[in-house]
Amino acid sequence: MKVDARGCRVSGASGRALEHYERALAAWLTWRGDPRLAARAACDEAPGFVMGHVLEAQLQLCSRDPAGIDAARASLARARALARDAREQLHCAALAAGLAGDTDRAQALLGCLLVQHPRDLLALSVAHTLDHYLGETRSLRDRVAAALPAWSREDPGYHSVLAMHAFGLEEAGEYRRAEDTALEALAIEPGDIRAHHAMSHVLEMQGRAAQGLRWMGERAEHWRGAGAASTHVWWHLALYHLMIGDQRHALELYDRRIAGSATPALNELIDASGLLWRLRLAGVDGGARWQVLAAAWAPHTEAAYCAFNDLHAMLAFVGAGRRDLQQRLLRAQTRRVSWGGTNQGMLRDVGLPASRALVALGAGDPARAARILQQLPAVSHRLGGSHAQRGLLGLTLRAANQMGTVPIILQSEIMGTVPI
Fold it and tell me: Whole-model pTM?
């Protein structure tokens, strides 16, 4: 039996298949290239490669795009038809839980796996991704910290572990340690976009917008050809411009870097909605951009697959004045609440109320929108995403308060402090 680059045993792999697997894993972790192509090549090279099929499935599942679910199920079925060791069996069980909508169980299974195999980079990266999607800030930091003692600078992928840890530290408010850790990752691999991303959050959350524009701008060459990852780091640059009151450059970044894809991925639609809504709150008229964005979101209206996605779809529908799509999404969310699974709680507690607040705001009832949003701070983390992304709810509450008759609540009093 062969082992991967970190010494984890892998069933059914050939040397060439392992090369493809490592390339796919590296592309996913550094946010560079298309890891799905390399993962498919690994499985084509060695159809009996269990972890190749697991990686293929997780790339689909972790995209938050329901369009990939059938492909993920097929990959899991192929993995389950093969002989597996105990570690690989846990991977398959976690995958099955995730596909069934039980993300909490998937997290727990991956946590058990990492206690035994802290150098399992795929398990660590998937668990880290799920922690982020569920807004589990403490686990986002502590899970990677627990694995770090088993790693060294010489290990392939160590810079990716540091980049994950940097993001977890930032989300936990440990900005100095997060910055040092991100810079350590970049000293090993300057092109690690995930480390650039962690650093962008550190600078943003500390209000260091001018420094952020310089620091990120000096590294923009690394983002060429990075797809949705490059879109997201340009999104952060746009937020820096908003922080210094430069709405014109933020809007230019929207047009040139964020809304330019003919076939945008879901993550790109999320960034587009988040930025265009922030511009609207800053008094910028998005014009026809809203109609284009709403049309791009429209095919996802009935899915109600992820509360975080739904919120950003609703932003587009409200911004475009598409009441038909607003109502379709609300009905889909209401149906989804009765289905069970992790997304049920996210929708019930945050996603559906937040969507209703946005609809009220769009209908000219800011007081109702504010009353709904005021009830969310204690559970807002369940929406998932980063503090910077969830801060959009706080910004919207402040705007609703200013338009309505209820007392204005300072932004720092809801959803964490967001420096824009």
Answer: 0.91
Burial readout 10-20 (b: 16 or more C-beta within 10 A, e: otherwise): bbbbeeebbbb
Tens of pLDDT, residue by residue over 128-180, are 999 998 888 899 999 999 999 999 999 999 999 999 999 999 999 999 999 99
Taking residue 64's Cβ as centre, other Cβ atoms within 10 Å add up to 17
> Class assignment of domain 135-206?
mainly alpha
Please name the fold of domain 1-131.
1.25.40
Question: SS3 of 79, please?
Answer: helix
Specify the DSSP class assigned to residue 404.
Answer: S
CA neighbor of 96 nearest in space, from 86, 82, 110: 110
Domain ranges in the chain are 1-131, 135-206, 269-420
Contact yes or no for 193/30 (Cβ under 8 A): yes
For residue 85, the 8-state DSSP code is -
∠ Cα 296 301 303 (to 5°): 120
Cα(29)–Cα(389) distance, integer angstroms = 21
How far is 166 from 12, CA to CA, in rounded Å?
34
CA–chain centroid gap for 33, Å, is 17
Q: Measuring CA to CA, which residue among 271, 249, 243 is closest to residue 259?
A: 271
351-402 pLDDT, tens digit each? 999 999 999 999 999 999 999 999 886 777 777 778 888 888 888 999 999 8
Q: Do domains 1-131 and 135-206 have the same CATH topology?
A: yes
Q: What does the radius of gyration of the chain's CA atoms come to, in whole angstroms?
A: 21
Beta strands in 45-92 (DSSP E): none
**Which tokens is 333 given?**
């969310």
For residues 17 and 42, is the Cβ–Cβ distance under 8 A?
yes
Closest CA to 289 of 333, 252, 235: 252
Contact indicator for 49, 43 with CB cutoff of 8 Å: yes
Identity of the residue numbered 242: L
CA distance 260 to 362: 26
Q: Which residues are bridge partners to 3 per DSSP?
A: 9
Q: What would the pLDDT profile of 122-134 be if each residue is shown by its tens digit?
A: 999 999 999 998 8
Query: 3-class DSSP state for residue 264?
Result: coil
- Among residues 308, 314, 349, the alpha carbon closest in space to that of 331 is found at 314
Q: What angle do CA 18, 22, 24 make, to 5 degrees?
A: 115
